[in-house]
Design a protein that fits this description.
2 copies of one chain form a homodimer. In chain A, helix 6 crosses helix 11, helix 7 crosses helix 14 and helix 14 crosses helix 15. By secondary structure, chain A is an alpha/beta fold. The longest helix of chain A has 17 residues. Chain A is 41% helix and 19% strand. In chain A, the strands form 5 sheets. In chain A, strands 1-6-3-5-4-7 form a 6-stranded mixed β-barrel. Chain A has 4 domains: 85 residues, Beta Barrel (Barwin-like endoglucanases); 62 residues, Transferase, Pyrimidine Nucleoside Phosphorylase, Chain C (Transferase, Pyrimidine Nucleoside Phosphorylase, Chain A, domain 3); 237 residues, Nucleoside phosphorylase/phosphoribosyltransferase catalytic domain (Pyrimidine Nucleoside Phosphorylase, Chain A, domain 2, 3-Layer(aba) Sandwich); 81 residues, Alpha-Beta Complex (Aldehyde Oxidoreductase, domain 3). Chain A is globular. At the A-B interface, strand 2, strand 5, helix 3, helix 5 and helix 10 of A face strand 2, strand 5, helix 3, helix 5 and helix 10 of B. Strand 2 of chain A pairs antiparallel with strand 5 of chain B. Chains A, B: It comes from Flagellimonas pacifica.
């Protein structure tokens, strides 16, 4: 099939394109001419052992010589190539799974085999960003029924590694985001693990928010651990707080999430499949899911939340998980900090039982830890929260948290951003609304989560009576440029906090 | 807002990424660090006069020096930059129109203003391929009502130039593709223009097919004409056969079509908006639309076709066009050739009244030309087809065709591909099915339309009794590699032509 002449010498170009595989070839290279390749042609690139699929970018300058080939960083890493290696290129055989994506675009139901074919090709890296975006969009907006979501979840579980903790009960929790600063997870893990349960928590980085649990935990400890290292930490401490991306649990999810981030969407079907596939693959048996409900939270109405709850619990059962969904208030940010370091400061405050620690964050964490203790069967119904409170206030939870961080390799202190800008009330009155989305946007424009000390420190709560000129919140940034983008956004939006 | 230090020197990298704007900057460049840019960040790049939005690819090698910036070819052209020009980069202000795309993903109706905002940003180049793909997918699969399609069509018309021919009646035709070899347009234009009507035909290149009318016409004449040149040709000959891409009519459509091609979809709403916006912008008043219906055509059932017909005629009226939709048989390819040169040979055969010219192509062209003559009011009802036949068989149509090609700059001869491979019947029997989609795929794998002599020459018709070993069709290719990809596809699909 492939001819010997379809070979080119690898040259290091060092172009980082995020997750997308890109191959660079000269327009006048013999292979482009003989194969009829043109820009954006999908090409298979092989090192004679393994191969990847990449989109072609055509080079017309001396960056490459004829007979040379370049690869984006991710592709070069996947193929494990070195300078002057010989690579072979060929046309991509038609991707059959794309016909399922098209069927889904046209509102057809897909079965297990269809989702399996799609997920397999996604993990192989055979989908371009255009294909990934179409698949995500076609699955969004209520276009999957619970059987389909179950099938997608199962294929995502089957596509990666699956952990086994040799425990009958392994607990986990998850929050359907949307609420800035809602960083209960580290507190819940500390309480539950201190009480003797096994909670190997893998978290994602921020998708559309100013910080994910992994971003916040990375301030305090190492979160990028190998499967072996995670196992060691959990065996020793009963819990961990790591990033899920390196664990090869549900690897398709990691690819899909990057495109969802660019689109700034998180659809119901993908959301359920993403959460539950990670939980099942991580070896969990009992999972509590927190859905904050509020006008500007991710889930806006009790009706939507109830539907999501029902779907989550149905799909959970279908994939063999005990799932309990809790609806919580989602009308304003939780705690004071928004952004990795600022949230880490709140978490430590609660764990250390500091006087000025944010009480709303503490109460949420206790409720969730209590629910998890009850769901596990480890404590009696109605007793969970009381026991959680005791574990926290006695200092056992902080001790456990410190031990987990140390087991993960370090327990670091937090930092405060060099650039700060205080926002004051333009008039007196009552705080009527705090727009979670706009607060999150502001924190992201300030640089969170990439700049780990960036974000927002809130100083206002719903219903509070305030004076004109009173401090509402402080912007934190690591560069003047980022601070300016946040300020520009602030100047163009007068409904971030509504006072009247 | 922007600091002076946000400037970099332009270096020519000569990387061609098709339509997507990509900017290349060093990871360790002062701007990336101070602004917090990372791979795939959307960045505004300005030459102090105009600006574009591009996705960042980060360079870690000596391809660029710190302080230098590169651009993909399309972006460099849009900005009109030269080596060592100073460019300024800044964060992209949040794109408000993406919130409408998200609303559409979540099944909400969009109004005129929303579509206008989206189309404006698309034309500005502010959407990445991920965003374009999401917009196309969200609009596919029956997710737009006719009011929405009308609004989208109107915004697409308003977004570009609009031609004015100073004629009361300007006719046009369009075929909703899906049928390989169905190249009636050049014949219809020749007949109708020879009869004295004005038909300034702009066509697209292939979206998902082995050839578009523009690809086929490019074999015979120049199709890339300026608006001024088109005007001259039409004033002289009453008709033209040019590519619509350079005319800046409905420029959003040209951008969307490239992504649709990568997805291999063509959704109803986008399809109607694409076709009718081009027609209205081209100054047409009366339009006949041909919808071939068949199991493997683009429109698979009479029911779907009737719905599309109704929507087309409704939207047509809303944007001020007289639209008549004709449903035609779509069970097999039309004519013999599939691919630019092979189709051009068929078209010339019909126009020259050659004995062995494909009769099915001739009959279709006469029916459409007749319908158009009647719709225009230029000839009596029921008389159109008879008059069209006379114009064709008298040689007037060929004379007009030759004159149009000459006016467009050349009238070239056709060529035949260097690589050919005959496909013979594996058994005797009756030809029961010819799969249009798979025949088209085979022609595309053979290299059509990029390789203009590539494609398929059909030698079989539905219902025909054949002997074992009889010639069914011939693959034509310009490279051995492409021929092999077609053969590999053939070997893996035994239902391209069904004989029993």
């Amino acid at each position: 099939m492939e001819e010997k002449s379809n070979t080119l010498k690898y040259k290091h170009l060092g172009i980082y394109t995020q997750n997308e595989n890109v191959v660079y070839m000269r327009k006048d290279c013999h292979v482009c001419i003989s194969e009829g390749f043109e820009a954006l042609t999908r090409i298979r690139v092989s090192n004679f052992k393994t191969s990847i699929v990449a989109s072609l970018n055509v080079i017309t300058s001396e960056v490459l010589l004829p007979g040379e080939i370049g690869l984006s960083q991710a592709s070069a890493k996947k193929l494990g190539v070195s300078v002057n290696d010989t690579l072979r290129v060929s046309h991509l055989e038609p991707l059959d799974s794309l016909s399922y994506v098209r069927a889904k675009i046209y509102n057809q139901r897909l079965d297990y085999n269809a989702y399996e074919a799609i997920i397999t090709d996604i993990i192989e890296g055979d989908y371009s960003n255009i294909h990934l975006s179409a698949f995500i969009t076609a699955c969004a907006g209520d276009r999957m029924d619970t059987d389909e979501i179950s099938d997608l979840t199962k294929t995502m579980i089957a596509s990666g590694k699956r952990l086994n903790w040799n425990k009958e009960i392994v607990v986990d929790k998850h929050c359907i985001g949307g609420l800035p600063g809602n960083r209960t997870t580290p507190i819940v893990v500390a309480i539950v693990a201190a009480h003797g349960l096994t909670m190997p928590k893998t978290s994602s980085r921020a998708i559309t928010s100013p910080a994910g649990t992994a971003d916040t935990m990375e301030v305090l400890t190492n979160v990028t651990l190998s499967a072996g290292e995670i196992k060691e930490v959990v065996e020793k401490e009963g819990g961990c707080l790591v990033w899920g991306g390196t664990t090869q649990l549900s690897p398709a999810d990691d690819i899909l999430i990057k495109v969802e981030k660019a689109l700034d969407i998180d659809s119901e079907g993908q959301l359920i499949a993403s959460v539950l596939s990670k939980k099942a693959a991580a070896g969990s048996t009992h999972v509590v899911i927190d859905i904050p409900v509020g006008e500007t939270a991710k889930v806006r109405s009790t009706e939507m939340a109830e539907k999501l709850k029902e779907h989550m619990e149905t799909v959970g059962k279908a994939v063999g998980l005990h799932v309990k969904v809790v609806l919580t208030e989602g009308t304003q940010p939780v705690g004071r900090g928004i952004g990795p370091n600022l949230e880490a400061i709140d978490v430590l405050g609660v764990l250390k039982n500091e006087k000025n620690a944010p009480q709303d964050l503490k109460e949420r964490a206790l409720m969730l830890a209590g629910t998890l203790l009850e769901l596990s069967g480890k404590v009696e119904e109605q007793k969970g929260q009381e026991i959680a409170k005791h574990v926290l206030e006695s200092g056992q939870a902080y001790k456990k948290f410190e031990a987990i961080c140390t087991a993960q390799g370090r327990f670091s202190k937090t930092f405060v951003a060099p650039y700060q800008f205080e926002m004051h009330a333009p008039k007196c009155g009552t705080i009527r609304k705090i727009n979670n989305r706009k607060i999150a946007k502001l924190a992201k424009l300030s640089g969170a989560p990439q700049s780990s000390t960036a974000g927002i420190l809130m100083n206002a709560r719903l219903g509070e009576e305030i004076e004109k000129g009173q401090l509402l919140y402080t912007l934190h940034a690591e560069s003047n440029g980022e601070l300016n983008y946040a300020l520009e956004y602030y100047e163009n939006h007068d409904d971030i906090i509504v006072i009247d």
